[in-house]
Write a structure and sequence with these properties.
single chain, alpha+beta, 2 domains, seven-stranded mixed beta sheet, globular
Length: 319
């Protein structure tokens, strides 16, 4: 029994020692290159320049990219990245110590080495779990607006409550509000006056990075104005979206951006509104800071028309 137990943990220790360095090397390569994982083709839009393969609407881009640099640029993201590096190194070290303990031939104290090896293996697994926690992708500031044609009570439900990390007003099983054509809301339970419903949560979408946009920080405002107009946001919604994301996009200098499809958003976090709206606009912007231009394929966006009772949601995800 002891022998079997020992072999199981030896296998675990060896697996950790083999897999973690690969993940560590991959992380370093992605950081140095600045390229999004799995990113083969994406677009650049800033001064009407686009990258791509050999299509007629594509031209080479060979000038230097520059953008504003902030002292706080990426401080949170970099802290998380450092934490991931530390957790990877910790997993490697503990995996090695576990392997060494299990391989010890001292017959006089076999229990001691099994206990030490087990402890080190658990430690290595703990570091790997920490790395996984630091790798979680979140949906940031999705806010929901309601525009009925006439004043009415509306119920809004999020289909995967277990993924929520923060909401306002407090979300239990649903939000119940009195919605007005102006977009103003009154929460029925508390009589709180609102203009939107806010949530954040874990994002499990498998991001399609084969298309999108590469946007210079200095061109981020004009880029968002143009794209959000196509996606159906009104002036107030556009301004709030831009105010929230512009500082980060400008500080990044160069950004990979893609807008998730409504089907992807619905799968990740279903949105149920009663009574049923005539128009539902859901925008989730995916962004990643990159360090150099990449060959890209432009994402095609479809013009959205607002008709009747309209529900609008926007948010973003950092990868």
């Amino acid at each position: 029994m002891k022998s079997t137990f020992k072999k199981i943990f030896v296998v675990l220790a060896i697996t950790i020692m083999l897999l973690v360095p690969v993940a560590f090397a991959s992380e370093i390569v992605n950081t140095i290159s600045g390229e999004p994982e799995m990113l083969n083709e994406v677009t650049m839009l800033g001064e009407a320049v686009q990258f791509g393969s050999n299509d007629d609407n594509v031209i080479p881009y060979d000038r230097e990219i520059s953008g504003p640099v902030s002292p706080l640029n990426g401080i949170i993201r970099n802290s998380i990245l450092i934490g991931r590096y530390i957790s990877m190194i910790g997993a490697i070290v503990f995996g090695f110590l576990a392997f060494k303990s299990f391989r010890n031939k001292d017959e006089q104290k076999p229990k001691k080495h099994i206990i030490k090896g087990t402890t080190y293996t658990i430690g290595a697994i703990g570091f790997l779990c920490a790395n996984g926690v630091l790798s979680i992708i979140k949906s940031f500031k999705p806010v929901i607006y309601l525009y009925p044609e006439e004043e009415k009570e509306v119920t809004v439900k999020l289909g995967k409550k277990e993924k929520l990390t923060c909401t306002y007003p407090k979300y239990n099983d649903s939000w119940k509000v009195l919605a007005k054509p102006s977009g103003d809301l009154v929460e029925l339970e508390t009589r709180k006056e609102l203009y939107s419903l806010y949530w954040e949560g874990k994002n499990n979408v498998k991001h399609d990075l084969t298309e999108g946009f590469i946007v210079e920080g200095k061109n981020a405002a004009s880029f968002l104005e143009e794209k959000l107009e196509i996606l159906g946001l009104n002036p107030r919604e556009k301004q709030e979206f831009i105010i929230y994301w512009l500082p980060e996009l400008e500080a990044n200098g160069l950004n990979y951006i893609r807008f998730e499809t409504k089907e992807q958003i619905d799968e990740d976090m279903p949105l149920i509104v009663e009574p049923k709206p005539d128009t539902v606009i859901r925008i989730m912007m995916v962004i990643k800071k990159i360090n150099k231009p990449i060959e890209v394929k432009k994402q095609e966006l479809t013009k959205v028309e607002r008709k009747g009772f309209t529900v609008v949601e926007w948010g973003g995800t950092r990868i």
